[in-house]
Amino acid sequence: MTRPTVNDIAREAGVSLATVDRVLNARPGVRDKTIHAVNDAIRRLGYVRDVAAANLARGRDYRMAIFLPDTESQFVQTLIDALQEAAAGAATARVGMELHRFPAEDMHALAAQLAALPARDLSGVALMAPETPVVRDAVKALRAKGLPVVAIVSDLPNTERDHYVGIDAQASGRTAGVLMGRFLGGARGRVMVIANSMHLRESIERRRGFDEVMQRNFPGIEVLQSLETHGQPATLRQAVRQMLAHAPDVTGIYLLGSGHRALAAVLSEFGLLGRVTVIGHELTPHTRQALESGHMDAVITQNLGHLARSALRVLRAKADRQPIDESQETLRIEIVIRENLPPATA
Amino acid sequence: MTRPTVNDIAREAGVSLATVDRVLNARPGVRDKTIHAVNDAIRRLGYVRDVAAANLARGRDYRMAIFLPDTESQFVQTLIDALQEAAAGAATARVGMELHRFPAEDMHALAAQLAALPARDLSGVALMAPETPVVRDAVKALRAKGLPVVAIVSDLPNTERDHYVGIDAQASGRTAGVLMGRFLGGARGRVMVIANSMHLRESIERRRGFDEVMQRNFPGIEVLQSLETHGQPATLRQAVRQMLAHAPDVTGIYLLGSGHRALAAVLSEFGLLGRVTVIGHELTPHTRQALESGHMDAVITQNLGHLARSALRVLRAKADRQPIDESQETLRIEIVIRENLPPATA
DNA sequence: GCATTTTTGAGGGACGTACCTCATGCTTGC
DNA sequence: GCAAGCATGAGGTACGTCCCTCAAAAATGC
Questions:
Q1: 3-state class of A217 per DSSP?
Q2: Which of A5, A41, B142, B279 could form a disulfide with A12 if both were Cys (CB 3.0 to 4.6 A apart)?
Q3: Are residues B209 and B265 in the same domain?
Q4: Per-residue pLDDT tens for B167-209?
Q5: Looking at the domain assignment, is residue A107 inside a domain?
Q6: What CATH number corresponds to the domain at position A188?
Q7: Residues B202 and B248 in one domain
Q8: What residues does A205 pair with on adjacent strands?
Q9: Nucleotide nearest to A20 (CA to C1')
Q10: Bridge partners for A189 per DSSP
């Protein structure tokens, strides 16, 4: 009726509890024959270790440090909410989380913070940061201290990070591209691309994926050069105004980064709001609102709740030197339009 | 450093462990003043109950019975895989699952199986079944026995089920409609609709959502009457052949149910494979393959892994008479195209 | 066959919580 | 101010696992 326990195994295998324990935890000093006998009993009874009890007994606690840029962006804020919720849920698994913020533009500051981390008391580090030499070295140093490091949202492929949790930027650019092409009816047209900065790996890869699809599948559509806004709404407004003056026949706009509200403002100036196809990234309260009001047509996003939970799970597995279930940790590239907008989280 | 325990609360609140326990578990015999003092201490220390330890101590075991039709469809098979994986994961939380199959067309048989359930040893029941009077009564009987009942995949809105885990069929029909309309370029065109049976609530609601969007947003597109295949590939082939003969200018096909391979076969006869826009539901190995090969343009689906986990979580919560975190249990309507196809699971 | 090493058994304390009993202190009302 | 009742404290056992120690048994080498 109830699940078998270690005692049941001992009885079934005709050995003592101590021996079962030795086998279960791969402790030395057991003959192969006995190991087999115990494993047989385990299989026969269908025993599964009570992980909760095991963790309890181990008294293991996990402390994860998460590093995020101190930008005020809605995306980061949404991510923080997701992380905090994930941490609350992970408390059951004895996982604690501490959030650190670093100056978005100052990788030396980040490196300093990482270096100052008390490696002893920590089980793992997750960070969202652009890949610069300084960051690379800092990650290397953490790994040398034996700390697992996970890159989130933005990958650090040329470092020794243990894992990346997030979606493939280029694939999400391709997804955006297909939608743009098909929404424009496959006909001719001009598409404007707006980025925060084309120095960010994210932006570059998204754009690359987007261009790849446009060239291959929709050669009739002309994709204009990226505008860079540096996160300044004013810069965005000015640049878009200028471009619309030169190319008033723009039928689509691809937003690589943020700036949805500023864009809506300019478009309404030109009477284009809702008349050009706008596709962007990351579901936040702003983009949600834009979808609802018909100012945007699609958003390519990832589920930040999953991302947060996955990051903590992966760090935990790495801390225990356990294998990762890749299939569970793969984030999906989600397509959101008005009709499948998930209800607001509150 | 480590998490506070009940003992810490006792010390902090200046009461005994027994009193803290009484407060935590809402046992009687504690003055309001003391309750407050304890709760204050809990808040001050940021105490969170160690659920794992609590369950251990409670010695509570959950046994959930899941009922699925015995159809050989890939969808059901995929769902079974997801459920088994979810059950494996839930073993940590002392949740066990037993799978039951019933003859897909025989609701009396299902009712009999449900009635024969040993309510004592069970913590909850989940089922995927069409809503018929017999099923309604069976659900009512289960509830009368005190068993939580959750409808999965297909809702049973007019029963006393405790919860529904799955996506809104009408909303997913709307999503399919928008994609169809936009992929067809918003121009004129004819769309064929193919269903297993238009008696299924699922099909009716999907079609209703689809029509709603088409009429409102794409009045230039004509949506033909639904073809019914009753799950027979031969019937599908014949019906589609006939309709294509009458209306060779079909530009889009909306598949409410299964039959992707049979459809591909007919389309290739007519040289239309990859030339008409095909949109369907549920990501299975077949639809995945159809997306990859360009025979389908989009699939509206739900994440069965989430569905399975959610069903078990909800049953568990209901069994404990605990509230449900609606936001966590809401499934998203996912849009899958070739570019954002998640990697195959196995 | 004896000493040595390896394998096994027996037992216990710990983790954090639930739940039980019994005793004692503290409030009440009268 | 005294009995009755209520509120609290003290202490114990249990859940399933980990991890430790010590002793006893079995296998091994020579």
A1: helix
A2: A41
A3: yes
A4: 999 999 999 999 999 999 856 789 999 999 888 889 999 999 9
A5: yes
A6: 3.40.50.2300
A7: yes
A8: none
A9: C8
A10: A221
